[in-house]
Amino acid sequence: MTAHPVVAPEDAVAAPAAGRGRRGWAGRLLRNPMAVACIVFLGATILFGLSSPWLAPHAPGATQLNAVNAPPFTAGHLLGGDGSGRDILSRLMWGTQRTLFACVVILVSALLAGVPAGLVAGYRRGAADPVLNWVSDVIMTLPGIVLLIALYTLIGPNLVAAMGVFGVLVAPSYFRLVRGVVLGVRNELYVDAAKVAGLSEARIIGRHILWAVRAPVIIQSSFVLGGGIAIQAAVDFLGLGDPSKASWGGMLQEAFANIYSNGWAVVWPASLISLTGLATVLLGNALRDALQVGAARRSLPRRRQELISRAFAAKAENDLPDRSATEEALLSVRGLKVAYPREDGGVSQVVRGVDLAVRKGEIRGLVGESGSGKTQTAFSVLGILNTEALVGGSVVFDGEDLIAHPASRAHARGRRIGYIPQEPMTNLDPCFTVGAQLVHGLRAVRRTSRRAARHEVLALLARVGIKDPEHVFGLYPHQISGGMAQRVLICGAVAADPDLIIADEPTTALDVTVQAEVLDLLRELRDERDLGMVLVTHDFGVVADLCDTVSVMKDGRIVDSGDVRTIFREPGHAYTEELLSAARAVDLDEVGTDG
Ligand SMILES: Nc1ncnc2c1ncn2[C@@H]1O[C@H](COP(=O)(O)OP(=O)(O)OP(=O)(O)O)[C@@H](O)[C@H]1O
């Protein structure tokens, strides 16, 4: 065998995904040069403002005749003086402090008003949800800037009150965000598990729910701060702020009034307002990328991805041992490799050179323990792996390599290659009736009238053993049982009359009686249509019942392969023996218990 040309050394490839080199979101953020620039700029701005009592060369209101409209770099006035002879640098420093204070008020009030309301509405629901939604909608309809102007007119220049009100006005953005995320999370199985484990509601919210909302809230905060800086500058610019206090907006307003005498005075506050707003928003974007899982993986250099893919492809070609077997088979997988980029720049290989073939009319079981790579192998044939997956090797279906020709694979999927998934319920769209989904699926792959498609679907529903097809056709997924849903999905998989079916643990979620019926149905369909089938399963009982041939997977490799009788009688690998004896031990235990 020729050496690899290559790139991803085997040890780097083989290390587990969650292993060394794993960095948190802060690490990912700090690797983004734009984020670092924004952090440095915002940090410097905060220091600039906070240090004003000690480092500002002059008091904010101190006037000097020689500083009136002084240009930059005048002695004692680095950025020059304004029309009243006040030092611009000192006023900018004090103004920054005021802006920082305004930002804190806005953020605290918006978070206090929006986040708890979103948590209550999303998690508790009940009467609180519509009421809080209504309040949020009302607040969102209020014209913010008009309300602030009215408030200033009523109570005078009170920064805390004005920015507090502004915070409440933007609170609905947090409310909606948090409510949406919580609605998505509250029905997750791990939240149910936490309830069953006896965790109090407060602990579930604190531990699980708040954790889920932290990323969107942090990102939203950066946008709120950017908006807050602009609003605070705007009200001061309109002359509504306290004229005795230095502020960026107030300085800008005064500088504009004096622009023909001292144009430079406009530049400083305008630059600070726009750069701070920009840096806040850009930092928000960078935070979003860093906090979203997978962002760093997407940043894996394209060149490196190409090299790794090429390395896989070269290995696969070298591995092609038996061209004749490939030519006979309906499906021939050779040297299939699947890997995922790791955050440290390496890759984790989850399928390591799988070979398997399926002829027409053959059912090949793909067995192995959890995580051995069965589903990844099946998904490679279908072309539905996660987009970041790196795939090498070949998947030849009816003479064409589907990995080399993704367009052919997309065309074959649903037409010539059907798929039966593991979880029947979650694979049906709850918003549409069973019939609508099947008709839609059929018409997506074959030109046929709605009426003809309906007719065909009803016949197929009857064929897969559904007693009253007309009735079930009009039902929504939640109105049918798991067994019926699996029959519906089988119906969808065979509707376009495919040659090959990929079935990913099609009976795992079903009870034993229904399991046996579904296996019988698959066997009958194979016999009727001469279907080739890859059946992914954990269960040697299913293999014994249905499969002609079996491939045993361990750690991403096929360790044993052959016809079912031979493998059951004389396992070719110690691991197969182990799996078989475990399966037999379970059976014996069951018999013992039953007896
Ligand atoms: N998007 C991904 N990124 C990184 N690793 C992944 C990804 N998807 C799957 N894997 C890893 O690939 C390995 C094989 O997964 P696969 O789903 O094929 O296992 P399986 O044999 O089908 O297991 P099970 O029977 O539990 O479904 C697992 O270790 C899994 O963690």
UniProtKB/TrEMBL annotation:
Membrane topology classification: Multi-pass membrane protein; Peripheral membrane protein
Location in or out of the cell: Cell membrane; Membrane
BP-aspect Gene Ontology terms: transmembrane transport
Domain ABC transmembrane type-1: 96-284
Keyword Aminoacyl-tRNA synthetase: no
PROSITE patterns in the record: ABC_TM1 (PS50928), ABC_TRANSPORTER_1 (PS00211), ABC_TRANSPORTER_2 (PS50893)
Listed Pfam families: ABC_tran, BPD_transp_1, OppC_N
Entry keyword annotation includes Transmembrane: yes
Protein keywords: ATP-binding, Cell membrane, Membrane, Nucleotide-binding, Transmembrane, Transmembrane helix, Transport
InterPro entries, A to Z: AAA+_ATPase, ABC_Ni/Peptide_Import, ABC_transporter-like_ATP-bd, ABC_transporter-like_CS, MetI-like, MetI-like_sf, OppC_N, P-loop_NTPase
Coiled coil stretches, renumbered: none
GO cellular component entries: plasma membrane
SUPFAM superfamilies: MetI-like, P-loop containing nucleoside triphosphate hydrolases
Residue span(s) of domain ABC transporter: 333-580
GO molecular function, one term: ATP hydrolysis activity
TM region positions: 29-50, 99-119, 131-153, 159-177, 209-235, 266-287
Assigned protein family: Belongs to the binding-protein-dependent transport system permease family.
Name under which the protein is recorded: Dipeptide/oligopeptide/nickel ABC transporter permease/ATP-binding protein
Protein source organism: Actinomadura montaniterrae
